């Protein structure tokens, strides 16, 4: 059993993917080839955002968004500590300070009720994370940001395709930043990502930053990075985008089926999905006690698992100085309990049944 079944996905899409890759090999424009602009137009149309800028990775998307905001030393960005390191990493790389706000125990997303108390005169932006495929409370976050004149960057690395109050993830705030890492809901075959915004000015800044700050060839108007997404990777995403609506539907069905099969199982906590949004289930994550024992039992039964994430960022050596160890207790508790089960659009229901049976056995 695969944790994320990319082999089955490729088998289903092989003719389209192979043809798309062959087109790139034929024209030979491996950097900024025509597939780049084609993908950007398709993704902008899909999300409803005015602009899409493809970039080298989800990490690069966050960094470029922060650089486009022209952060200054001493500026602060509010975010969640219960996330992958790239969220805080990019804030520090941009010269700012991450300010951690704890998460909700049921959704694992940033607790909006705690944000305003952490805003200072140095705060420049809020960076909520749409964890496990569900968007955070963006309406409330945007309202807080508007009151204080702040930008909002949605870290949507895990939520591309998700819907919040009738609108798509990545088109909900100042910037939306997503990842096309192979295991993401929409993935390429290497690193890749995209940045979304409705602002013409910020979009232009992001486009310049991704090519070393160039506004035209060899004319560098700002500090930049080598942040382009390869043409080959854009071609892969274009092929996968053709059946992405089906994959989103299938993820929703499999997520609902997991929830039904696990409902009421003693010792298993399910991540809540709010009624005004959905989840694309980038991971299907549950909470269990004695995780190491449960994980070992599942491994013995042939069921792969993962932990997203075993240590919150305020406990990581690189970021511990930005927060006290006790300041985000919910994140600390979740980090000790979360366990991700096999999940992808091509997960067979028979394998899903095996996962649930193995989990029941591990908790017995």
Question: Could you give a short description of this structure?
Answer:
The chain is α/β, with parallel strands linked by helices. 38% of the residues lie in helices and 14% in strands.
Q: Bin the strand percentage.
A: 5-15%
Classification by helices and strands: alpha/beta
C-alpha-based Rg, rounded: 20 Å
How can the largest sheet be summarized?
7 strands, mixed
Walk across the major sheet and give the strand order: 1-9-8-5-4-2-3
Shape: globular
The appropriate CATH architecture of the largest domain is 3-Layer(aba) Sandwich
Give start-end ranges of low-pLDDT stretches.
none
**CATH-level-4 superfamily name of the largest domain:** Type I PLP-dependent aspartate aminotransferase-like (Major domain)
Number of helices: 11
Would you write up a description of this structure?
The protein has helices spanning 6-27, 34-47, 58-68, 86-93, 138-148, 200-209, 231-241, 244-262, 291-300, 329-337, 349-363, and strands at 51-55, 76-79, 97-100, 123-127, 151-155, 163-164, 167-168, 175-179, 193-197, 214-216, 219-220, 269-270, 284-287, 338-341. It has 364 residues and is α/β, with parallel strands linked by helices. The protein has 2 domains: 6-241, Aspartate Aminotransferase, domain 2; 244-363, Aspartate Aminotransferase, domain 1 (Alpha-Beta Complex). The chain has a 7-stranded mixed β-sheet, with helices on both faces. It has a 3-stranded antiparallel β-sheet with strand order 12-13-14. The chain has a two-stranded antiparallel ribbon with strand order 6-7. Strand 10 (214-216) and strand 11 (219-220) form a beta hairpin. Helix 1 (6-27) crosses helix 7, helix 3 (58-68) runs parallel beside helix 4 (86-93) and helix 8 (244-262) runs parallel beside helix 11 (349-363). The radius of gyration is 20 Å and the shape is globular.
């Amino acid at each position: 059993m695969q944790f994320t079944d990319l082999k089955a996905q490729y088998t289903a899409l092989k003719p389209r993917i192979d043809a798309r890759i062959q087109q790139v090999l034929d024209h030979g424009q491996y950097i900024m080839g025509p597939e780049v602009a084609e993908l950007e137009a398709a993704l902008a149309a899909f999300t409803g955002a005015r602009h899409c800028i493809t970039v080298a990775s989800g990490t690069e998307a966050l960094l470029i968004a922060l650089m486009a905001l022209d952060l200054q030393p001493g500026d602060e960005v509010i975010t969640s500590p219960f996330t992958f390191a790239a969220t805080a990493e990019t804030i520090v790389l941009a010269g700012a300070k991450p300010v951690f706000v704890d998460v909700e125990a049921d959704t694992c997303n940033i607790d909006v009720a705690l944000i305003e108390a952490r805003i200072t005169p140095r705060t420049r932006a809020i960076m909520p994370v749409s964890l496990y495929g569900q968007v955070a409370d963006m309406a409330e976050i945007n309202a807080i940001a508007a009151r204080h004149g702040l930008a909002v960057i949605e870290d949507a690395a895990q939520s591309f395709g998700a819907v919040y109050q009738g609108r798509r993830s990545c088109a909900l705030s100042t910037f939306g930043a997503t990842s096309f890492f192979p295991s993401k809901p929409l993935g390429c075959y290497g690193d890749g990502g995209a940045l979304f915004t409705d602002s013409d000015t910020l979009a232009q800044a992001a486009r310049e930053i991704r090519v070393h700050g160039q506004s035209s060839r060899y004319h560098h108007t700002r500090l930049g990075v080598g942040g382009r997404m390869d043409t080959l990777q854009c071609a892969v995403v274009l092929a996968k985008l053709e059946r992405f609506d089906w994959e989103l539907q299938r993820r929703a069905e499999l997520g609902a089926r997991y929830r039904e099969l696990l409902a009421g199982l003693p010792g298993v906590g399910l991540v809540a999905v709010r009624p005004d949004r959905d989840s694309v289930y980038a991971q299907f994550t549950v909470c269990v006690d004695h995780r190491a024992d449960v994980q070992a039992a599942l491994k013995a039964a042939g069921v792969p698992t993962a932990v997203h994430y075993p240590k919150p960022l305020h406990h990581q050596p690189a970021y511990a100085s930005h927060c006290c160890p006790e300041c985000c207790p919910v994140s600390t508790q979740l980090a000790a309990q979360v366990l991700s089960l096999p999940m992808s659009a091509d997960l067979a229901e028979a394998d899903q049944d095996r996962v649930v049976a193995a989990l029941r056995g591990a908790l017995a």
